[in-house]
Write a structure and sequence with these properties.
Chain B: It comes from Carassius auratus. Chain B: Keywords: Protein transport, Transport. Chain B: This is Vacuolar protein sorting-associated protein 26B. Chain B: InterPro entries: Arrestin-like_C (IPR014752), Vps26-related (IPR028934). Chain B: Belongs to the VPS26 family. The complex is a heterodimer of chains A (about 160) and B (about 325). By secondary structure, chain A is α+β, with helices and mostly antiparallel strands. Chain A has a single domain, classed as Phox-like domain (PX Domain), CATH 3.30.1520.10. Helix content of chain A is about 30%, strand content about 20%. Chain A has helices at about 20-25, 70-85, 115-130, 140-145; strands at about 30-40, 45-55, 65-70. Chain A has a 3-stranded antiparallel beta sheet. In chain A, strand 2 (about 45-55) and strand 3 (about 65-70) form a beta hairpin. The longest helix of chain A has 19 residues, at about 115-130. With about 325 residues, chain B is mainly β. Helix content of chain B is about 5%, strand content about 55%. Chain B is built from 2 helices and 22 strands. Chain B has helices spanning about 305-310, 320-330, and strands at about 10-15, 25-30, 35-40, 45-55, 60-65, 65-75, 85-95, 95-100, 105-110, 120, 125-135, 140-150, 160-170, 170-180, 180-185, 190-200, 200-215, 220-235, 245-250, 260, 265-280, 285-295. In chain B, strands 2, 3, 6, 7, 10, 11 and 12 form a 7-stranded mixed beta sheet that branches. In chain B, strands 15, 17, 18, 20, 21 and 22 form a 6-stranded mixed beta sheet that branches. In chain B, strand 20 (about 260) and strand 21 form a beta hairpin. The N and C termini of chain B lie far apart (about 65 Å). At the A-B interface, loops of A face strand 16 and strand 19 of B.
């Protein structure tokens, strides 16, 4: 009985990959865009809404395509719901910019174009990060946020 | 130590008989430095000489006895006062009396049991050493010499592969396989990761070797985790049906054999950690324990070769007839 001096490093056998799997669309398609900011209302009752459009092939989402309008406070609501109900570490939202809401500013405050763009980008990053999280995908609040016309703040929280 | 220059003192020196031929092994000290020490295996005899050299020639050295000890002990860093000796042998070299001149004493610890491997870790140290002591009224003179012990194993009889399907429901399913469950320290980990379902956006995948040192028992148990190796095995997003190979050479890393419950004081275990990282830096991982063992360098001679060597040592016999006889016996 002699000892082998060179280890066998040949690859383990594996199944050849099915070509439809290799070249077909991936099963992890998920894209969310936050765009088209619109400022609604007049004077002190103005607020900005954004269009949140989702395209996906993940089976957990009922609709493969959806399009809703949301405002900053809706994003805040989603963040709070997830922080309370899910075990995930929720990423930060772009700032609340309270300073910008004070009077006597030289610019448009929270309706300043550059600020809205900054906020839009931050919200897009936030929602993409959340929606891709396997644990967040189980929460009803996320599905309601992305795919229902309006958010029912009296909903019953729970898992999908 | 002598008070005010009076009195005699001595220097002790321990020299092994086979210092010229015995191999040395590198071993990390507690502060991270690497030093070389004589290497011993279980059952080997430890023999040598103790040189006691008088500092001031002409003056006599009164003593209460000279002895040499062979000690194997475990030291827990959080309990430094208590040394747990699992091997303790003593040889008396001189009865109480006096030395008028420098003297050399022979010693031999025959076929000493060295059941565990030398280990210097984060919270525990296992070491073997020789300690020669000249006992005196006020203060002893002693000298320690550390040695390193390695424990060798032969190829395990049973060495099944590790194959498992793991994942997150409806999200990510993989099947991983490692070719063995027991690897020697210069072995190669050959494996593969097969993707059954990929609904997350994976950015890359790596395999880590984690060393976990566990010290203490009962309520005070300390775990020290240390990532010894990080090796990226995939860059990019896989899809269903894809198979990613693994080939990880262990010789390049600082590893010790797996040590389980050594003298009921500590354990050192190793784990392979497969980590997948997605586009949002989320980490998905699966840890799997592997057993590491030390393979001997000694090449085993064939039976007939061993027999002819034994025959040649046989006094008074013709070497030709002896080896012919040995060949016949071995067939």
């Amino acid at each position: 009985m002699s000892e082998a001096t060179v280890a066998d490093t040949r690859r383990l056998n594996s199944k050849p990959q099915d070509l439809t799997d290799a070249y077909g669309p991936p099963s992890n398609f998920l894209e969310i865009d936050v765009y088209d900011p619109q400022t609604i209302g007049v004077g002190r009752n103005r607020f900005t809404t954004y269009e949140v459009r989702m395209k996906t092939n993940l089976p957990i989402f009922k609709m493969k395509e959806s399009c809703v309008r949301r405002r900053y406070s809706d994003f805040e609501w989603l963040k709070n719901e997830l922080e309370r109900d899910s075990k995930i570490v929720v990423p930060p939202l772009p700032g609340k910019a309270l300073k910008r809401q004070l009077p006597f500013r030289g610019d448009e405050g929270i309706f300043e174009e550059s600020f809205i763009e900054e906020r839009r980008a931050g919200l897009e990053q936030f929602i993409n990060r959340i929606a891709g999280h396997p644990l967040a995908q189980n929460e009803r609040c996320l599905h309601m946020f992305l795919q229902e016309e309006s958010i029912d703040r009296n909903y019953i929280p729970g898992k999908v | 130590m002598s008070f005010f220059g009076f009195g005699q003192t001595a220097e002790i020196d321990i020299v092994l008989n086979d210092a010229e031929t015995r191999k040395k092994a590198e071993h990390k000290t507690e502060d991270g430095k690497k030093d070389k020490y004589f290497l011993f295996y279980d059952g080997e005899t430890v023999s040598g000489k103790v040189n006691v050299t008088l500092k001031t020639p002409g003056k006599r050295l009164e003593h209460y006895g000279i002895k040499i000890e062979f000690v194997g002990q475990i030291e827990l860093y959080y309990d430094r006062g208590n040394h747990h000796e699992f091997v303790s042998l003593v040889k008396d070299l001189a009865r109480p009396g006096e030395l008028t001149q420098s003297q050399t004493f022979d010693f031999e610890f025959t076929h000493v049991e060295k059941p565990y491997e030398s280990y210097t870790g984060q919270n525990v140290k296992l070491r073997y050493f020789l300690r020669a002591t000249v006992s005196r009224r006020l203060n002893d003179i002693s000298k320690e010499m550390d040695i390193v012990v390695q424990t060798l194993c032969t190829y395990p009889e049973l060495n099944s592969s590790i194959k498992m399907e793991v994942g997150i429901e409806d999200c990510l399913h993989i099947e991983f396989e490692y070719n063995k469950s027991k690897y020697h320290l210069r072995d190669v980990i050959v494996g593969k990761i097969y993707f059954l379902l990929v609904r997350i956006k994976i950015k890359h995948m790596e395999i880590n070797i984690i060393k976990r040192e566990t010290t203490g028992t009962g309520p005070s148990v300390y775990h020290e985790n240390d990532t010894i190796a990080k090796y990226e095995i995939m860059d990019g997003a896989p899809v269903r049906g894809e198979s990613i190979p693994i080939r990880l050479f262990l010789a390049g890393y600082e590893l010790t054999p797996t040590m389980r419950d050594i003298n009921k004081k500590f354990s050192v275990r190793y784990y392979l950690n497969l980590v997948l990282i997605d586009e949002e830096e989320r980490r998905y991982f699966k840890q799997q324990e592997i057993t590491l063992w030390r393979k001997g360098d000694i090449v085993r001679r064939s039976m007939s070769q061993q027999a002819s060597i034994a025959a040649q040592r046989f006094e008074g016999s013709n070497s030709e007839t002896a080896s012919a006889q040995a060949k016949e016996e071995s067939n």
